[in-house]
Amino acid sequence: MSDENNRTSSAESKERPESTGTRSDTVDVPSKDFGFLSIPRGLRYYEGRPQKFGVILQIVFGFSSTFTAANLYYCQPLLITLAEAFGVSHAEVSRIPTLTQAGYAVGLLLVTPLGDLVRRRPLLLLLVLSSGSLSIVLALAKSAVVFEVISFFIGVLTVTPQVLIPLAADLSPPHRRAASISIVFAGLLLGILIARVLAGVIAQFSSWRNVYFMAVGVQYAMLLLLYLVLPDFPAKSPEIGYFGILKSMAIFAVTEPILIQACLVSCAGSACFTNFWVTVS
């Protein structure tokens, strides 16, 4: 009987994979961001199961989406003021929102796919730090050309909400996933609305440069909050490669009927929205 039990146990041990105890045995996630900035211990992926998308994290994600998306729209109620400050025509100053949106389109195409290839925590921190730092240049700009160039690059970097939304889905349990995505997306929409209100009010009672100093302050505040509460996750699909991701996007864009339909509806909606939202200023 004892020999039979031993043979059975031996067979089961060969069939059953060896338990590693924690995810850290199989998932190699550094304990530091950028090789030198320590990650708070409780936010490390391998310390336990993935973090729940709790109330505090929802609020931080929502406001981070708000005050990064707002970068795209601060300039719109300031166009006439900027034309007078830089001594250029209205036609020339109208290039600023155009270049900002063009940069945003480039960022959606070329930067957002990095969310599948690298760890999203350092990616998000780098995006917010870069856009906040470039906002300092906007606040100090002395010429329209400099303002236009920096606006384009800020547009490229203002894809934080598009990285936060899928991260919110990954952090949430299945029954809360739709609600979590909605909270982050609502933050993005709030940023579109509140940016023009804040910019208009601040410029009405002080200098237009203070609009961008305010943008710097709120983005650095969001950077600090993200550093303190954003959990770390390993890269989702690093084996695909950057150009592999771009290739898959191109394939899906012509082979998935539901995706094609959603893109067409979104393009039409965005065109209608932009027609009045930009020109109303």
Automatic annotation (TrEMBL):
Residues 55-281 form the Major facilitator superfamily (MFS) profile domain. It comes from Sphaerobolus stellatus (strain SS14). Gene3D superfamilies: MFS general substrate transporter like domains (1.20.1250.20). InterPro entries: MFS, MFS_dom, MFS_trans_sf. One of its GO terms (cellular component) is membrane. Residues 1-18 have a biased composition (Basic and acidic residues). One of its GO terms (molecular function) is transmembrane transporter activity. Keywords: Membrane, Transmembrane, Transmembrane helix. It holds the Pfam family MFS_1. Residues 1-27 are annotated as: Disordered. This is Major facilitator superfamily (MFS) profile domain-containing protein. It is a multi-pass membrane protein. It is found in: Membrane.
